[in-house]
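Inputs:
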Amino acid sequence: MSLSGAAYIAGAFEHPTRFAPDKSVALLHAECARGALDDAGLTFRDVDAYFCGGEAPGASPAYMADYLNLNLKHLSGGELGGSGPIGYIGHAAAAIQAGKCDVALITMAGRPRAVGQATGTEKQNFPSDIPFSPFDVAFNWSILTIYGSYARRHMHEFGTTSEQMAWVKVSASHHAQHNPNARLRQVFTVEEVVNSRFVADPLHMLDCCVITDGGGGLVVTRPEIAKSLKRPLVKLRGHGQAMTVNNGGMVDMVHTGAALSGPLAFAEAGVRHADIKYASVYDNFTIMVVMQLEDLGFCKKGEGGRFVMDGNLISGVGKLPWNTDGGGMCNNHPINRGGMTKAIEAVRQLRGEAHPRVQVPDCNIALASGPGLINGVGHYHSTAILERE
Amino acid sequence: MSTQATKKPFGVPWETDPFVTPWPEMRPFWAAAAEGRFLMPRCGDCGKYHWHPRAVCPFCHSRKIEWIESPGRGTIFSFSIARTWSPPHAIAFVKTAEEPVILTQLVDCDFDALRIELPVKVKLAPVEAGRWMPFFAPER
């Protein structure tokens, strides 16, 4: 059975804050929920399903469901990392298709900046009950040194250069200049990126995403409900998710989970790469955009560096308009998780509600994709293909 | 720049390390490590080595895991320098002679001399919590 057409994204909301010292995590989730429901033209009373990730209070949907006093028939959640919200779009569609619920709310929010979290550079303190922890934790590896190692391997195997990777930041900055809420609105050059200081070589400071507070919300509904509302219709056309495991240590370090979730989503959607008018691809680090675009099939393996060069990802300039909100690179990376904002900008593009300077003309099919978590080099990954009806 | 393997025992026994106690089936690994012996897990049924160690073979799901003493040789598969740390350190993925890739920290190394495919050898050293971990250093 296919999820294609099983559900619609009826509401999408990106919290405008990037720094929230005066709000709790629960309140940010609540504001994101309210924003997404208002956008859809629905109320909390309409919600009968709820999904959230490990960043929610108590790392469970139960506590926010209680805080918001929701009346639920279905709920699910867990720690799928940054890509969780893209995954939950599929989980919600499956539950709707199975008749378990009608209106699913997805929220994601947090405040790493308010608490001074050094997200990328601090050592990863995984609990001792996670099977790899005893063998990894005391080495003081960080998110940055893992992705730095990814980048170096890709450079080694394919000749990818720092200048090519820098184009990812440059492209995002060209989009972010038009976003009044963006954390960074400065337009960067390739030289500025490669001359910024090394944080985990070969990655520079400007190869990294921003750290922001905030979050977002999505409302996924049964088709009949979406069609009864006043918003443009955004249909789930295809969905894929996968876990890239470390395979007992038999890893190549040049493939991401997009090589698994992407083909599943494309097959379910029944579309080709040329049909994708806009792509949101999670940009925690420049190298990950290069690798995921390869794995999603927008170019051959090893050619991602060349693919992102010369403005090919800039709306109105290149062949694949990408992260037109400024992405995690420049706009927003709330609570260190990029999946929610990826889905939201894809919805904006399909509705024709992106900033006029970055809106893709006749944007009828869009993709949102990204990784979540990192265990050694293993990670969760999900991809959604959406269609304007 | 370089790091020194000046790891001295912290006076904490490995047996009480909170990363050791929840994993009774991993005790042979930690006991050997504290004696300076590096064990790698190999499946008694399919014959494959794996990493990180576990009591179930990730390839054939056999419970017949054997601990094989390893010389701990390999080459750097990839690496990155944590420049924001004081002092900085090198995180590496080491491709072992047994095949599995191990996430580790490199010690006794000149950062500027590191490169992919550089031969490295295991160097067991205690960490603060008590257990001895498989650090790696360039082969001399």
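Residues 27-33 of chain B form the longest helix (7 residues). Flag for discussion at group meeting.
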